[in-house]
Amino acid sequence: MIKLFEWLFIFFLIMGPWTAVVTNFVRNEFTKKYFTVIFCTPFVLVGAFGIISLLIIAYRVFTFNDCIEAEKELKQQIKMAKADLTKKGLKL
Q: What are the transmembrane regions (predicted)?
């Protein structure tokens, strides 16, 4: 639950001032000049987060190690389980 509060705090810390600027609660020359950039910033950040997440997932999938010994052990256990079930009268 603590991590949730951490993320919510960061979310409101960023979105509070952004909302104030977008709804014209804060008006000055800087916000008028860069309104489009300020308005698009959260959308760009969410998009960048998504792209980076997909790249990290793809990298980890492609560099995942094969466990040949574990595969052999698992196949052996499956054969033993099938033999045990056949011995007990189950038809496979």
A: 6-26, 38-62
pLDDT in tens, 44-65: 999 999 999 999 999 999 998 8
Domain residues for 6? 2-66
Q: What are phi and psi of 28, to 5 degrees?
A: -160, 180
Q: Does residue 50 lie in a domain region?
A: yes
Six token digits for residue 75: 């196949």
Number of domains forming the structure of the chain? 1
Q: Is residue 61 part of a domain?
A: yes
Q: Examine residue 12 and state whether it is found in any structural domain, yes or no.
A: yes
The count of residues in the chain is 92
6-43 pLDDT, tens digit per residue, is: 999 999 999 999 999 999 998 899 999 999 999 999 99
92 membership: H or E segment, kind and range? none
Say if CB 41 and CB 18 are below 8 A apart: yes
